[in-house]
Amino acid sequence: MDALVEVSGLTKRYGGTLAVDGVDLKVLPGEVYGFLGPNGAGKTTTLRILTGLIAPTSGTVRVLGGRPGDAAVLKGTGSMIESPAFYPYLSGLDNLRLLAEYAGVSRQRIDEVLELVDLTDRAKDRFSTYSLGMKQRLGVAAALLKDPELVILDEPTNGLDPAGMRDMRRLIRELGTEGRTVLLSSHLLGEVQQICDRVGIINAGRMVAEHNVDELRGEQELVVRATPKDT
Ligand code: ATP
């Protein structure tokens, strides 16, 4: 089975800081892969490299068989890295329409993604009136517009209240159930246990371990040492 994401010996240096230090990572088709680690571990930096936003210092990176930033790779990948930027005085629907026009996406697809993220009822309300959870879900909707094979989400539940977290986790599980490949980052062990098939643990830029979620239960101590406890 060809990996959709294949990273080998990845490093990223910022001046004297080695943000990513020799990361190897493979994400297989159809899996929900969790990239787990505390703040500053190197998760966002790695995901930014995978989506072509920044270049690595060294290492090889293949996404959907190509290089990040290649047109075909961008077409097949939907991502939400950090908080998505939307126009506050436009509705959720109009924000998606603007993006859809740019990406050549149909009106029907906009309706589909709004339904998927459970925002159909609030689609015509201004973005500024949305809760943080709804804003994040609109971000996922934007990532899904092109019907991508691979979805990359950077800490999608960060800052959400319990209800917002529950809705976002349910949505991510749905993406996995419909066969989409998802790579997400999180600093919450309980969260990746709930929604992921496989987990890579990163600490201080290095991959400390990789586990199937079932195996993770036996490795609580290792994980808790590397990451703060779930809240
Ligand atoms: P968080 O959950 O806080 O986003 P993270 O695991 O995503 O954490 P990164 O944001 O990738 O971690 O940061 C890894 C390290 O690289 C940190 O020490 C951070 O300070 C540093 N770093 C990240 N971006 C830059 C930058 N643009 N310039 C300098 N240092 C950076």
TrEMBL record:
This entry's Gene Ontology molecular function terms read:
ATP binding; ATP hydrolysis activity
Give the ABC transporter domain ranges.
Answer: 5-229
Q: Which UniProt keywords apply?
A: ATP-binding, Nucleotide-binding, Transport
Q: Record's family?
A: Belongs to the ABC transporter superfamily.
Q: What is this protein called?
A: ABC transporter ATP-binding protein
Q: What is the phylogenetic placement of the source species in the record? A: Bacteria, Bacillati, Actinomycetota, Actinomycetes, Propionibacteriales
Which portion of the entire protein is included? 1 to 231 of 303
